[in-house]
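Justification of resources, computational component.

The compute hours requested in this renewal are based largely on the per-chain cost of generating structure records like the one below. Each record pairs the submitted sequence with a full structure-token output. That output is archived, and it is also reused by downstream analysis tasks.
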Amino acid sequence: MRVLNLVTNDRARFFRQQVSVLNSRGIDYTTLTVPGQRQYDDGNTSSRPASAYARFVPTVLRHSFGDYDLVHANYGLTAPHAVLQPNLPVVVSLWGSDLMGEYGWLSKFCGQFADAVVVMSEAMAEELDRDCWVIPHGVDLDRFQPRPPEEARAELGWRDDAYHVLFPYYTERDVKNFPRSERVVEAARERVDEDVELQTVTGVAHEDMPTYMNAADSLLLTSRSEGSPNAVKEALACNLPVVSTPVGDVAERIDGVTQSRVCATDEGLVDALVTALETEGRSNGREAAREVSVARTSERLEALYREVTGAN
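The structure output for this chain reads:
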């Protein structure tokens, strides 16, 4: 099967992982990226002028006459280009902000004309007036595995006589709401006997992230909105407790996971964090993470491709 991929950022880790795994399953990809992308030091991608998306239209149209079985628009801002071409079946994947944010109306409109729409969570599916495939980005269970916390802390040089709360995002990203994490951790410090250190981790190689997940005592997510946050799934795979605001599919992902809670208020977040820190042992999150392993999510995406194209 040959798939024409459209994407705004072909360097997104979860996108590259998706392509790699499906390629190993015999699916051949050609990826077209919207022109004019720039990467800032804080990890954000600059907004493009409308002219960049206009220049992308003839590129996609020309490729649509090639030897492909379908076109897959990854992120809502590439959906118009997919549905405008007249030759190939269309799959549109929505990642979160493209549906819940400023241009959500565009994603909803284009989704009406796609052969299939993929969303990251049931909450996203409820935003669309059509049937959807809920297929969150998968987690690599071979890379993200539990290991002794004291061993991971020694590797990072973290204190062994303190609690460590992990915030694995750029602190300047407004949607991640770092000031709220600071407030929650400060309040938790007043209620526990040991020191509590808020560890912000950005700009490290992805292969090093399991060490941070295993060294921490809890993941703290205070985002204002999310689709299906990868950090939560990676934490679960390492049996790291998760404390989060009610965003995306977090409540679904941590259902039945010990020492993990979703809370809307600061008071609830503080209570949940204190419990996670003071409870001995790790969570049972890895069992829950198996449901969103990259192997399982890739199988589902391949099944979608075959349904859309009528392939056996």
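Residues 39-45 have pLDDT under 50 and may be disordered. The chain is about 40% helix and 15% strand.
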